[in-house]
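User: I'm curious whether this sequence folds into something compact or stays loose and floppy. Could you predict its structure so I can see for myself?
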Amino acid sequence: MNDLLLQRISDHISVHSMVSAGDLVLAAVSGGKDSCAMLHALHLLSEKLGIRLAVAHLNHSFRGDESDADAEFVEGFSGQLSVPCFVRKVDVPGAARRLHKSSQEAAREIRRQFLLDTANGIGAAKIALGHTQDDHIETILLNVIRGAGTDGLRGLLPVAGRFIRPILQLTTQETAEYCASNRIAFREDSSNRSLRYKRNRVRQELLPELATYYNPDIRGALLRLSEIAGPESGVLDGIANRELEEWTISQDSERLVLDANGLRSLDVAILRRVIRQAIRSARGHIQDVEFETVDRCARSIIAGIRFGEALKPGRLRLLVADDRFEISSIANPSQPLRVSIPVAVPGITTAPELRLQVSTELAKVGPLVSVSTNRLMLVADAGKVKLPIQLRNRRPGDRIQPPGMTGRRKVQDILVDRKVPASLRDDVPLIEDAEGLIWVAGHTVAERICVTEATRCALIVRLEPMGYVEPAEDSRDVPHSVL
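Assistant: Here's the prediction. I'll summarize afterward.
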């Protein structure tokens, strides 16, 4: 059994050209049976493959003394194999709270960065991950549940850039058998049994339920789905890459510019993939890039509508304007994109960065304009508004005096009271005049510009989300909405 499994691992590495002779391979080892089996197998195969090994272990501090014991175990196991080991301890729960992310999301990001930093520091060409066929199947099912596209149906890739998965074809049962036959001790992570985590629920509840009541060979069915989707996705990637090259006008470290007119000729399925590939080219990865963002961008290009959006976190900005589609870097990635756009009075102003169109007009006060309940319309006393006005998003320390209050309130506190998620607060449109803020759109206006019985002329400001297209007679050709 041991020789058979070792040969399968060797064949898998060879088929996917995972390593080259002379490579230093950094093995990510948690201390569990999968990663320990992987490290041991790579150690036995290292002479045959012509590679050198190092180990990396992240002590994520989730389980206190248990996490510390994991780190000590990995160091000891690495020492037995005479493989250098690099360990870092990080307070991931604390980092998750500071970053307002889930603990699992924060752990993934911190672990990935730790592995890349370590690999770069020691000159490792490849980073080996101990994912198995079980992880692959669970990933496919999780991607189906969240509504992933064709790429998501591929599951885990044997090779993804510098990351390789040498035991992806083995099941966890087989890695347990490998450890047993080689008398390899390993650590059991108690959190793997917790149903707090979605992956654990898929493993312990959903897959057994599907196998019992729907398809006894559900694992095989999901593997076939991956085998079908993988090559098809690869074909589409090839087409998208050729189109990306065809319609690229210019690219440097700060900006990638594409010809929107050329992109407009593409089928929406290919266009979405071109946009994803463009983001990958500019950013290095497409992690956390949501389908909705890509789709809004694609439909704006097709319909010839101005569009702007900062990727979260805001390191890049997508902009569709006139005949160009641009992906540009934001000067200070630690700060949100700052937008400030002069507004014509009267007139129409487009603000693609906030995906808004602003229309303004002056009108005599009457029963139809004296009161507004529309969250996207401001009716102000024109005589009290000090021109010029501009549309912008919030700044630290922004304050406004709501109606009926004697003092000013922080915009931050108003948005918190209104339960606006932290991730969306920088997207709330603000209007200010020469004396300060007069409107936090959808939430409050400034007391000083409110319409009264003495008002004779009103300034009406309307915000309209950009991207709406009136349905054409043949609605198959023009999207109804790109929002």
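Summary: The longest helix spans residues 218-247. DSSP finds 14 helices and 22 strands in the chain.
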